[in-house]
Write a structure and sequence with these properties.
Low-confidence stretches: none
Shape: globular
Structural class: alpha+beta
Strand content: 15-25%
Helix content: 25-40%
């Protein structure tokens, strides 16, 4: 008789968000989560994570390194088996995606 293991996706999601909040856009003193660069975080029952994110612009100087940093830092959560980061520009990032906290930090409120 096999026991089904239910994963606490909420708790895991919070751990992932905590990690994402340690990653900053080098040009803006706000983390990528508060900036609204993370569009989606999907976790399946095999502990595989897919992160859908964007960059502030397609010509962003960290276009090569930021997704790799996101992948490596999220992979540091022991329980995860795999992490894939996908970049999208649809919809394009705008300041409207920033959290109130980020807007305050940048003096936009």
């Amino acid at each position: 008789m096999s026991e089904e293991v239910t994963i606490d996706t909420t708790e895991l999601g919070e751990k992932i968000v905590k990690v994402l909040k340690t990653i900053y856009d080098p040009e803006i003193p706000v983390d990528i989560y508060e900036l609204g660069l993370i569009y989606d975080v999907l976790v399946n029952e095999e502990y595989e994570v897919k992160i859908l994110m964007t960059l502030t612009s397609p010509n962003c100087p960290v276009a090569e390194t930021l997704p790799v940093e996101v992948e490596e830092k999220v992979k540091s959560i022991d329980i995860l088996k795999d992490v894939a980061v996908e970049i999208t520009f649809d919809p394009p990032w705008t300041q409207d995606l920033m959290s109130e906290e980020a807007k305050l930090e940048l003096g936009l409120l």
